[in-house]
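Progress report, Aim 2. The chain analyzed during this reporting quarter is listed below.
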Amino acid sequence: MRRWLGLLFAAAACLAATGALAHAYLDRTVPEAGSTVHGSPAEVKLWFSHALEPAFSTVQVLDRNGRQVDRKDKRVDAGETKLLKASVPALPPGPYRVIWRVLSADGHVTRGEFAFEVAP
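Predicted structure tokens for the chain:
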């Protein structure tokens, strides 16, 4: 399990570095990429380096079986256009993968993913 999370975190870091050349790169996340959280988060939040186009920016939270578990309410925050978020129901313990694709206001697309785990 830890090895899987480590590999996903390494892949996400590489994708984030590649995204830096394409304008809107992933700056930080809550839950933090590669972290283990105690208790289910209410939302997954992703901050980017540039403002996002809401209609063309997406995020999904997947469980260990690849099923989408977020509430399918992804949105770019109206007051903070660099913030993309999606709410999640109470998540049971286990690993989760967050997959994102964004279009920055300057017209560049970036994508990537990261993982976190909910502790028992």
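Residues 24 and 49 are 5 Å apart (CA to CA). Residues 4-11, 13-22 have pLDDT under 50 and may be disordered. These observations will guide the mutagenesis work planned for the next reporting period.
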